Every structure is written in C-alpha cells, then in structure tokens.
DNA sequence: GATGAATGAGTGTTCATTCAT
DNA sequence: TATGAATGAACACTCATTCAT
C-alpha cells in the first residue's frame, strides 16, 4: 500500500480520537510507518492533511446524500432513509463521521474556509432535505400539523447526535429510533 | 475580582471554544489580565486548571439533576423538566455545558480520571432518571408500550444534542421539542 | 528557635547535598518551616545566604587553624594535629566542611569574591602551616630530606581528601593515616 | 566534525566547570555551535546528555584500569602504575575526570542509576586492586606490616585527591608522590 | 519517493524576587 | 516579623517545518 494512504489513514484516526491540536506530525508519521519529511512530500503541511481529509469525507458524504434525494418514496420513508444512512455511516466509518461533527481546529476556524463552507453546506442540505419532506408530508396529510422550522431543527439535532455516537448502534436502537420518529410525525 | 476567578473564567471560555490542546497558557493569562506565573501560583499546571474547572461544573450540574429528582410529577412532566433544564443550561452557561460534552484532552483521557468518572456518572444518572420515568409511565399506562432501553438511549442522545447546540435556543424550539416528545411517548 | 537560624540550617544542608544551583529558595523556605518572603527579609537574596553561610564557616575554620598554630610541639605532632583536626571537623560538621571544599556556584565564581578570597586564604594558610613545619623539621633532622613544595602539595591533597570523605571516619582510619604520614616523613 | 560530537564536548566541559544544574541547554547549544532543538534530536534531554557522557567516561576509565591489572610487576610498581595513571588522566582529560569525581546532580542521585552503579563499581575495583596489592606485598615481605583496610582507604583518598586536582600536575609532583608512597609502604 | 540532520518559533513551567499588607 | 499574591526572566523541551542528499 502506498505510504500516502497510510498517512491519510493514520491522520484520520488520530485527528478523530485526539483532535487536530492534540495530534503531532511525528505521531502521524510513526503510525503511518513513514518519516516526517515524507508527510511534507505528499502534503504542504499538517493543515493540508486535515483539509484534504475533510474535503474527501465531505465529498463522499454529499454524494450519499444526493443518492437519497433521487429516490421517490413516502415522505416518512425519505426521512427514515436519512436516519438509517447516518446510523450506517458511523457504523462503517466512525473516524470519518467523528471528524465531520467535531469542532474545527481553532487556527483554521475562520469562515470562508473549506470545511467551514462544507459544514454550512451540510447543514443547508440536511435542512433542505428535511424541511422539504416535512412540508410535503404535512400538505399531503401524511404528517401531523407541526412547525416545520422547529421540527427540522429537532431532526437535525438527532442526526448529529447519531453521528456523535461512539459505540456502534445495534439494530434494535436503529429500529426504535425510526419507530420513535414515526409516532411523532405521522398521522395515525 | 480576584484574579484566580479571572483565570478560571478565561480558561473556561478558551477551553470551550478552542479545546484544551488549542489553548495556550499565555492566552489564558492574557485574557485573564494576569501573568503566566500567576496561573502556576493558583494551579499546579494547565491540566489542573482543566480538571478543577470540569469538576466544579460537574458538581453544579449534578446538584441541579438532584433537585429535579426530588419533585413529584407525572412521568412525562419529569422528562419535560429534564429537557427544559438542559435547554436552560446551555442558554445560561454555554461554555460550561460545551465543556461537559466536548471530547477530553488526549493526554488526560485514561479511564479512572476525574472527568472520566464524572462523565460516566452523568451518563448513569441520566440513564437511571430516564429509564425510571419510562418504566413507571408504561406501568401506569401514561406512556405507550415501548422498549425502555432503546428509548432511553434516544432520549439521552437528544439531551446531549441539546447541550451541543451552539446558538441559544428560542422558546419556540424548546416548546416544539417538548411537544415532539409528547407525541412519541404519551398515550392519547 | 528564631526562624533565621532555621533558614541558615536548612540552606547549609541543601547547599551541601544538592549544590547551590540545585537548591531552590522554596526548598529552603519549606525545610526551614518559613515562607519565601521571609528569606528576603533576613537576606538580600539567595546569593547572600550562601555568602553569609560560607563566610561564617570560614571564620570558624580559620579560628581553629589559628589555635593550632599557637601550640608548640614537634613538627610532626603539629602536622598530626592538623590532620586530626580535619578528621574531627568532618565528623562534627559534615555539611559545613562539604561546603568548604565543594565547587563554587558558576555565577559567583569570579575572583575577588568573598569565598574566592577565603578559599585562596585557606590554601595559603594551610600551605604556610605545612611548609613551615616541613622546613623546620628537615632543618632539625626530625624529617627526612624531601622537596618541600611537592610534599606540601601532597599533604594538602590529603587534607582536602579527608574533608571530602562522606562517611564518618573511624578511629582506626585516623590513626592509620597518622601512622602512614609518620613513615613517610619522619627519620627513624 | 558532526555536531553531535560538538554537543558532547561542550556539555562535558560545561558540566565539569559549572555543574549539571549550573549548565543550561542554551549554553551547551551555543558552545557547540548548534541550536537547542538539535540537542533534543540527538538526546532525549539534558539528563541523557549527562548520563551518556558519564557512561562513556566510565567505560573508558574502566578499560584503562583493566589494562593495568593485566601487567605483572612488583606490588609497589602496580600501585605506582595506578597513581601515575590517574595523574596522566587528569592531565589528558581534566573535564572527564572532574566529572567522574564531582557530585551527582540532585535529581538524578537515587541509587540504582547508571552513574551510581558506575561510581560504586569504580570504588570496588580500586579497592580490590589496592587491597590485593597490599595483601600480596605484605605476605611476600615487600611491604611493611599494616592494616590493609585502612591503608586501602588512605590510598583511595589520595587517588581521588589526584583526580580533583585542577591544575596540571608537574612531573616533580608526580615523582614526589610516588616517592612519598614508597617510604610509607615499602620495607627498606 | 524517502530520509537523517537541522531549525525558528513557541509551550508549559520554574526561578528568584518583590509588593502590599 | 511574617505572608498571600504577583511578576520578569529564564529554562527545558516540543512543534511544524525545511534542507541536503
């Protein structure tokens, strides 16, 4: 395996578990079975490792969101799909998802940055996806009447909460969550 | 105001916004209008500032949880109280609450530590509080039949999600959240 | 006991065992059951503690040397007296003697300093005492013919070696040393 | 010359003249024409510079002692060799020898340490070498009757005194010392 | 691609010392 | 005498980064 991949893997894990500031370039190089200068051959610096990792995570994440949007379904099914997707994501790639929801490094946290933009983008997309579903569902009578803006916020909070889960969620928890949402949203 | 309090305040804010590793002792001293050595007069080191801050936050937090447990109410009202408390807490002391739910510094993260214990303690108390309410509510017919363990997890996820909220939540969001839970839990 | 004496005692012991640079003012104050500022009430600084301690040790030491010089005896007995005196001194006040022969702190080691002068003074006095004895002894036939300058150096080396002894010397060692010198110096 | 050697040389000299605690890493780096971090590239810290220097000095020193033990000679000649060796050593490498006999830094002075062990080793070897010579010499009638243990101590004191000599000893002093020992030990 | 050696800028921490009381 | 609070200057050490090969 090319060492560049080693570096990315090691850095991803370290950033996820120790944070950006808590991770040193020596640690990365050691965990990647490489030397420090090699890092600087492949990346311009520690910042760029972080940036490039986050960018590719977001790209992947956005692609999966897009897939969901293409499907036609009942509005609740669409929301269910979104929730299940996030449960799957933390099960499959916990480091990556942990990075997506963790705080940005202080020094890189000015707005206008790639991850800042991506984070806002993520929020916008989720908000759009959820509020669209809710609005349509309410219109068609599938959902109860409810304040769309607030319920969107609540659902987003839950999505983020799912991503912050450290232990792998069991199937029972996933199903219970879906059921829970069903009782809150859907007209019986 | 005694400078020790300045230091605590400054450190709390910096740790909350930049993380432990992203915060330097110089920054703390400057923000506290003090010199660096003074930090070391009042604390044994950066670690202890963090530890002592977290300990006192947890103490305060646990005291508030205890208060709630004393009250007699319907089971849903008890859960509502818990949720509203957390909304109030992030509104009143966002830095402190942010610290409670943020990742522990890598170097201090071995189990057996004060915050490790406190964090586990917090989880245990919330779990106990919530599952007690749920069980009783189901028994008395106040709540629908539901898997207690999973619903407890979901509610805890929501509590944590509330604490991670960065913007002050509006009254409408709080009420909507309570309403949302009501529809999921309570028999109509 | 007045705390000033405590400070002196503690400082003497610490300087002797850890050196000047290896001893901190907090250590001194703690061992003396005093606070740091009190040190600065009694002394102008760490340097002066050292200086004053060394000065008083040297004063005491020189007084004892002077006593010896007053006595009339055979030349060997005078040398024997000198050797025995030094054995007694390290037995009685090891910290003080250790300080006399230990290296001076780097920062205070310019010539012209009190201890520099005292150290040179000590050397001069010992040299004078010993070479006088040797010369007279050779003249009177009590001692063998020998190069006075070199034997003086050797005897001084031995005196200093005695002072550097860390363990308390037994009576047998003292007597053996005297006997040893006797065979080297005295005509049989 | 590789800079690591520079560092070792500079540190050896500074430790010998100013002591461990009186020497700063900046001083070492400046004297070695290097930067401070380079010290930490080659050594794990100030402690290890000291440790590694002392270890290699002791290794060299023990090797020379071993050489002496191989030679066959009269017992006095063997003792003479030992004394002359030490005179040569301080002439050739005064810093190194000064370090061997100087006090260990307070913080590294617990028993079980490398230098602690080496120092004890040195003492044991010298004691063994000298007392062997003395015993044999007394048995064969080469030496006068004398208490072996005490005379060994005295000779060791002299050896250490030689090593503590700061000025280069002249040939006359060396010869006088040998002569001095001869009169004390050997039967005429 | 890959590395051993090297560095400027900073980090947490300690030191001797002072101030106000 | 005595001290709690405070500080300027320095210290050991680390960090991200670069250079020469």
Q: Brief overview, please?
A:
4 copies of one chain form a homotetramer. The first copy, chain A, is mainly α.
- Tell me the radius of gyration of chain A: 19 Å
- Whole-number total of structural domains of chain A: 2
Number of helices of chain A: 9
Mean pLDDT of chain A: 94
> What share of residues of chain A is helical?
over 70%
CATH topology value of the largest domain in chain A:
Tetracycline Repressor, domain 2
CATH C-level of the largest domain in chain A = Mainly Alpha
From the spread of the alpha carbons, the general shape of chain A counts as elongated
The oligomerization state is: homotetramer
List keywords for this structure.
mainly alpha, 188 residues, Arc Repressor Mutant, subunit A, 2 domains, Tetracycline Repressor, domain 2, homotetramer, DNA-binding
Q: Mind explaining what this structure looks like?
A:
4 copies of one chain form a homotetramer. Chain A has 9 helices and no strands. With 188 residues, chain A is mainly alpha-helical. The first copy, chain A, folds into 2 domains: 1-43, Arc Repressor Mutant, subunit A; 57-185, Tetracycline Repressor, domain 2 (Orthogonal Bundle). In chain A, helix 1 (3-18) crosses helix 2 (25-31), helix 5 (75-92) runs antiparallel to helix 9 and helix 7 packs across helix 8. The mean pLDDT of chain A is 94. The interface between C and D is large, with 38 and 38 residues. Chain B binds a DNA duplex (21 and 21 nucleotides) through helix 3.
């Amino acid at each position: 395996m090319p060492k560049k991949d080693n570096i990315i893997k090691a850095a991803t894990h370290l950033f996820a578990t120790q944070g950006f500031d808590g991770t040193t370039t020596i640690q990365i190089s050691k965990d990647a079975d490489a030397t420090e200068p090699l890092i600087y051959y492949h990346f311009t610096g520690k910042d760029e490792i972080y940036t490039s990792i986050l960018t590719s995570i977001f790209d992947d994440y956005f692609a999966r969101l897009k897939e969901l949007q293409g499907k036609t379904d009942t509005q609740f099914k669409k929301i269910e799909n979104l929730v299940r997707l996030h449960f799957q994501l933390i099960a499959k790639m916990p480091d990556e998802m942990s990075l997506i929801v963790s705080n940005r490094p202080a020094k890189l946290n000015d707005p206008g940055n790639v991850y800042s933009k991506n984070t806002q983008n993520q929020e916008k997309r989720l908000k759009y996806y959820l509020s669209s579903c809710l609005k349509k569902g309410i219109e068609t009578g599938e959902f109860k009447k409810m304040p769309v803006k607030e319920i969107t916020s609540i659902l987003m909070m839950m999505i983020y909460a799912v991503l912050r889960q450290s232990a792998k969620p069991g199937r029972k928890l996933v199903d219970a969550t879906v059921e829970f949402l069903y009782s809150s949203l859907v007209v019986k």
